[in-house]
Amino acid sequence: MKIQNESGELETQIIVAMITNKAVIDAVCQIWKPPMFGVRWLDMIGGWAVEHYQQHGEVLGSEISVYLEEWVDTSRNTEDYDLVERLLETLSDRQEEKINEEFYIKRAEFLFNRNNLERLFDQPITDDLIDTIGNWNPIQLHDEEEVFAATEDMDFDFEDDGDETLYKYNGALGEFLNPMLQRDQFISFLAPEKRGKTWWLMDAAHRALRQSCKVAFFSAGDLSKGQLRKRFIVRVAQHPTRSCSLEFPVGLNFDEGEVDVEHDTRVFHSPVSPGIYKQKFRRQFRKLCRGPKDISKYLRYYVYHNTLTMARLNSVLDRRFAREGWAPDVIIIDYADLIVPPAGTKDVRDGTNQVWKSLRKLAMDRNCLVLTATQANAQAYGANRLGMHNFSEDKRKLAHVTGMIGINQTAEEKRMGLARLNWIVRREGEYDVADCVYTAGCLGIGNPAMKSAFYKMPDPVDDE
């Protein structure tokens, strides 16, 4: 393969991760055998990163300047020197950045395997062709066959098994949701129309952001960019878009099968203003960025009006990673039923199944949490509590998710700002469809979950 002086965007992101992240360089060291990048100066720096890690057990980091000085003394290649200098500028912004390590490792696998194939065939290899070529031994940076090889020597605690909860809720809702808010999970809300599915998804985006997660939010429905922006501003500012009085929940009371929400009335004499928004924004996100203009480092909104496909979604994320090294911790899709099935799909149920299979794969391939929502069937409108029979279009949705959450609400509960969440499907941990967590919120400020409590309501008795 011809050695090039210019690196591609993906190559640059991988070499930066090798220099700054211990998990990435540890994985690469296991298979390092240059040329891996096929770009002279990148293979050189990769060699420095591997050598430094093998000798000292630490990432190369700022020590790259030492290697660079030694190399300058012996090299007259000014073109390579300029490229390395440009890379150092990128490093200054990445030293302390938290990244999706497993995803970077998977992208490194992809890159090194593609380069190996190009050397083998002495021609460029398309991305799709990699998946169709047989009779070759691909590089793997993590050994999946050794998962149970050393169970006798493992030091572990099942109560704290190292799984990372990406973001957390407080109180009863936290006890209900937090154990499932981890990487590789695919969770969906299930509810009839107008039960606040989009509000729950936007609230999840806000909470994940406040806890330093990178969030990609895809809107596939009928909300415009302006409407999405307005909802985000309202949620951050905790202030409505008009002058009004709102009922804020301050407590939940249960008595003999009856639930009552205590409210305080809050009067807003003016709509949310830029000043209020910026003040609340800086208070909530001061650890992430200096102001609203910088939030794009952590939050990306994409709006596709009934035109979103899984191919387009993956293409958008791949471009962001290649250009900026930006990989989301949480992907939110509002909502999955509006994703266009693959071309050539004739049966509606088969198309739905393909989309939901792809969403499960998305969570695993990108090592992230995928959140979405789905429409319930017609019977759900009169149901007191949703169950597995309330799916719409294709029951295989329930097979692909790792968790399905029902949003239950009567007309009276909706008036009180009350909702009951229950696990309809949950792959990990014990659950009972009848167990609900009660949440009270105020959608006037974009928060569906200001208070929460557990209570097992008696099953309703039908009149004879």
Give a description of the structure.
The chain has 464 residues and is of the alpha/beta class. The chain folds into two domains: 138 residues; 284 residues, 3-Layer(aba) Sandwich (Rossmann fold), CATH 3.40.50. It contains 15 helices and eleven strands. Strands 5-2-6-7-1-8-9-10-11 form a nine-stranded mixed beta sheet. Helix 13 links the parallel strand 6 and strand 7. The longest helix has 21 residues. The protein is globular and about 80 Å long.
Share of β-strand residues: 15-25%
The second-level CATH architecture of the largest domain is 3-Layer(aba) Sandwich
In order across it, which strands form the biggest sheet? 5-2-6-7-1-8-9-10-11
CATH superfamily of the largest domain: P-loop containing nucleotide triphosphate hydrolases
Number of spatially distinct domains: 2
For the record, give the distance between the C-alpha atoms at the N and C termini, rounded to a whole number.
80 Å
**CATH top level class name of the largest domain:** Alpha Beta
Keywords summarizing the entry:
464 residues; alpha/beta; Rossmann fold; 2 domains; 9-stranded mixed sheet; two-stranded antiparallel sheet; 15 helices; 11 strands; globular; disordered N terminus
Topology (SSEs and partners):
Blueprint: H1 9-20, H2 22-29, H3 40-56, H4 64-74, H5 78-91, H6 101-121, H7 127-130, H8 171-177, E1 186-191, H9 197-210, E2 215-219, H10 225-237, E3 244-255, E4 258-268, H11 274-285, E5 299-303, H12 310-324, E6 330-334, H13 348-365, E7 369-375, H14 397-400, E8 403-408, H15 411-416, E9 418-426, E10 436-442, E11 447-454
Parallel strand pairs: 1-7, 1-8, 2-5, 2-6, 6-7
Antiparallel strand pairs: 3-4, 8-9, 9-10, 10-11
Helix pairs in contact: 1-2, 1-3, 1-6, 1-12, 2-3, 2-6, 9-10, 10-11
